[in-house]
Amino acid sequence: MHNNMKEIDWANLSFGYMKTDYNVRINFRNGAWGELEVSSEEHLNLHMAATCLHYGQEAFEGLKAFRGKDGKVRIFRLEENAARLQSTCQGILMAELPTERFKEAILKVVKLNERFIPPYETGASLYIRPLLIGTSAQVGVHPADEYMFVVFVTPVGPYFKGGFSTNPYVIIREFDRAAPHGTGIYKVGGNYAASLRANKKAHDLGYSCEFYLDAKEKKYIDECGAANFFGIKDNTYITPKSSSILPSITNKSLMQLAEDMGIKVERRPIPEEELETFEEAGACGTAAVISPIQRIDDLENGKSYVISKDGKPGPICTKLYNKLRGIQYGDEPDTHGWVTIVE
């Protein structure tokens, strides 16, 4: 236990797990969600035949709480995470957790672990991980009739240790993360398991992350590792439209901010060769907000799409990144009502 908070080196936190004081749980039994329970136990007592272990009835979310200069704690767009979890539940036939219950659990777990929310100056935040699993014993392939919703938190460092910078990416054709009309639009563990080999290959080759083309035609840019892609040209923010991409809440937010800044927004298929025409590009998600792309290599075709000619993040990416982080930390006005202040 970190009894003395001075033990935590806030400036050097990684994106990893650190034990905190409490987690919260809600069980679904006999067709209804029960009371919120608070636990300090890090383990789950699971039946060995639970559907989450055998048939992948497992969904998760990721969101963050930020401490502002004013000392207030802000959680970014939690209703969107609740809605996405409900969509995943529909996709893999799990009991849906209502938004109010999701919100109750998130606020409770953040308040209980308030001493782990990093100070404003550190650029660190409190990562919140909701998890929903099928818990009843089942041997036939059917949905469970009992579920457990668990939320734990852990402080995480800023994604960019050395400041906001560009990274190299690589297109990998030999593996697909998800198929059109498969589970790519849901936040289920299986999609991440499906990305591990390609991700390892990209890292072994010296790249920050892997890029997937659409599984059907291998012609269009789909997703980048565990993040959404966007490109910028002619004052337009362009992001793929595809039936196998996770709807990123960060991407949705960036599209809105781009519109606010007078930048056009297009959601459409992006053929690989269009990569040559982008002035800026990025991968976006909860962890990094935006990871600007330096270049994207297509090794099989011996091509390199250099996006950032000077190796630095472009002006629009930088503006969007600063604006979104500003809203999250309370330094910019929250004109869209995205932030929930923890009272």
From TrEMBL:
Q: In which pathway does it act?
A: Amino-acid biosynthesis; L-leucine biosynthesis; L-leucine from 3-methyl-2-oxobutanoate: step 4/4; Amino-acid biosynthesis; L-valine biosynthesis; L-valine from pyruvate: step 4/4; Amino-acid biosynthesis; L-isoleucine biosynthesis; L-isoleucine from 2-oxobutanoate: step 4/4
Q: Name the cofactor(s).
A: pyridoxal 5'-phosphate
Q: What chemistry does it catalyse, as a reaction equation?
A: L-isoleucine + 2-oxoglutarate = (S)-3-methyl-2-oxopentanoate + L-glutamate; L-valine + 2-oxoglutarate = 3-methyl-2-oxobutanoate + L-glutamate; L-leucine + 2-oxoglutarate = 4-methyl-2-oxopentanoate + L-glutamate
Answer yes or no on keyword Transferase: yes
Q: What GO MF annotations does this protein's record show? A: branched-chain-amino-acid transaminase activity
UniProt cross-references to InterPro entries, sorted A to Z: Aminotrans_IV (IPR001544), Aminotransferase-like (IPR036038), B_amino_transII (IPR005786), BCAT-like_C (IPR043132), BCAT-like_N (IPR043131), BCAT_family (IPR033939)
Output the superkingdom of the source species.
Bacteria
- SUPFAM superfamilies associated with the record: D-aminoacid aminotransferase-like PLP-dependent enzymes
UniProt KW keywords: Aminotransferase, Pyridoxal phosphate, Transferase
Stored Gene3D superfamilies: 3.30.470.10, D-amino Acid Aminotransferase, subunit A, domain 2
Cite the EC number: 2.6.1.42
Q: What NCBIfam families does this protein map onto?
A: ilvE_II, PRK13357.1
Function per UniProt:
Acts on leucine, isoleucine and valine.
PANTHER family referenced in this protein's UniProt entry, alphabetically: AMINO ACID AMINOTRANSFERASE, BRANCHED-CHAIN-AMINO-ACID AMINOTRANSFERASE 3, CHLOROPLASTIC-RELATED
Into which family does the record put it? Belongs to the class-IV pyridoxal-phosphate-dependent aminotransferase family.
**Record-given protein name:** branched-chain-amino-acid transaminase
Q: Which organism is it from?
A: Bacteroides vicugnae
